Amino acid sequence: MSTQELAIGIDLGTTNSAIAVWEGGKAKLIPNPLGLFLTPSVVSVDEEQNILVGEAAKSRLITRPDQTAAAFKRFLGSDKVYRLGRLEFRPEELCSLILRQLKSDAEAYLNRNVTDVVISVPAYFNDHQRKLVAHAAELAELNAVRLINEPTAACLAYSLHETHERKFLVFDLGGGTFDVTVVEHQEGFIEVRASTGDNLLGGEDFTHELIRWVFDSLGDEADESDLIQFAKIASACEAAKCQATSVRQVVLPSPFNRTLTLDKEATEEIWKNLLTRLSRPIRQALNDARLSPDDIDELVFVGGATRLNEVQKMATRLLGRFGKSEIDPDLVVVIGAVTQAACRLRDEAVEEVILTDVSPYTLGISVNRDGNSGVFNPIIERNTVVPASRVERFYTGYDDQEYVSIEVYQGERIWVRENLFIDELELAVPKNRAGREAIDVRFSYDINGLLEVDVTVVSTGESKLKLIDRTAKGLDEEAKQRSIERLAQLKLHPRDAIPNITLMEKLNRLYEEHLSNERHHISQLIFLFNSVLESQDHVKIKKAVEQINRELLAYE
Ligand code: AMP
């Protein structure tokens, strides 16, 4: 095994995830056991309490929705607990199972241990959510050496070999998040000028609106509390959403067995609110970057949901130009993440690129102002280019004050109680009249998300420094240990069994989704597959898989 450091990038997506390695001066995508570059971010627990990840788990969203979880990345940082059969998981634990699968794919492909990785995160993820991603990596025995914002990664993928100065607007609509980032590229230099978004808006919401519409149309005929029926309708709506036509057909499963048609106007009406919500982050990002739509040279599409005609039309209308999508919008982020990993290791092909980023949230402290306590005083404002260092002077608030307590918060609200508490530090001040002692508070924020808070009493020169690690770790050690122990007990299927398991899960799904003759045909295929699997004869299994796949083409 080689000891040379590997540059590995991971896109941990809401819907799909991917992993890539930097090889021979360029990004190389790593296939999963099915030979595909995208692994659905779906986890399921089977009847033997084994864990299934990816495509096989995705089929079980239909057949075993009560044992399967998807889109959990958007609940990172919430109290949500997923019950899959008899097991319970927190969102970061489910993320770690995806990361574990990607790590195993990379190790099988490279025949080497993989530990250090760059992982992309939505630009709008707050501090706590970022820590949870790093924590999920740790649970998967990976070390997240850097978390890169997804739109920054996308720009890096597009910008690497370009030299002339350009301003990009990265329009990233994934499964669960919407990020808008304004990026400036000059020779060898990529600077994020502004980054904003809506972390509760994504492609899944477009599907949900369709599902709502279908249930409204079906009225009493349908039962939303029937999980299997709901999952089948959801799958029909997802398929209708992905049709690249302006008139969409929702092919309803049994017992409805009919097709609902949505014309262009009806679709736009159903999605009107979602489409309108796309404009606010765009305006805010341009505003924060002090640019107008005319200043933008390129509109870059990232994320599967930017394939929606209606979304592209809206983006084009708002910016007055067509979008770029030469690099697959589902793979552009992982390509950027691995490019960043190569930058860290200073690969020759990327050596010249310097990356700067912005702080996605405002950082500040709690102060008393005009008789109000707990007022948020920003020090490093949202969209400040990092690394950044800012100092502000404050004064004691009452006579004979002995200590000042600096409470650090992150957020955009006027009251600290509505922002996210980060840390605090205390420093003695000489007794004096109110307002006579000055205190300088300096915030230094580096590219890796490390915040240094430096507090100095001006009269004495005494100071105290606190390093706040905003990158990773920092989570309750005991909880982490419990998680590690629980996850270590879970059994995963061996890699070489995954393609067959995936095919069996697909057959089970198709069996559920069909009736009469078709169902009979699928049951025959299930019997055939079962018997060859029992024979353990590899030649027979291979032949049967080819035959079944051929016959299943009729159901795609
Ligand atoms: P991502 O998180 O970037 O993988 O984006 C996934 C989202 O893109 C999901 O909501 C998908 O339904 C959506 N998506 C994928 N392909 C298409 C397509 N062809 N048309 C519309 N939406 C799509």
Q: How would you describe this structure in keywords?
A:
seven-stranded mixed β-sheet, 29% strand, six-stranded mixed β-sheet, alpha+beta, 15 helices, binds adenosine monophosphate
Task: Describe this entry's structure for a reader.
It contains 15 helices and 29 strands. Helix 1 (55-63) runs parallel beside helix 13 (498-513). The model has no long low-confidence stretch (mean pLDDT 88). The strands form 7 sheets. It has a 7-stranded mixed sheet with strand order 18-17-12-13-14-19-22. Strands 1, 2, 3, 4, 10 and 11 form a 6-stranded mixed sheet that branches. A 4-stranded mixed sheet has the order 7-5-6-29, sandwiched between helices. It has 556 residues and is an alpha+beta fold. The structure holds adenosine monophosphate. Residues 13-16, 174-175, 203-204, 238, 241-242, 303-305, 307-308, 330 line the site of adenosine monophosphate (AMP).
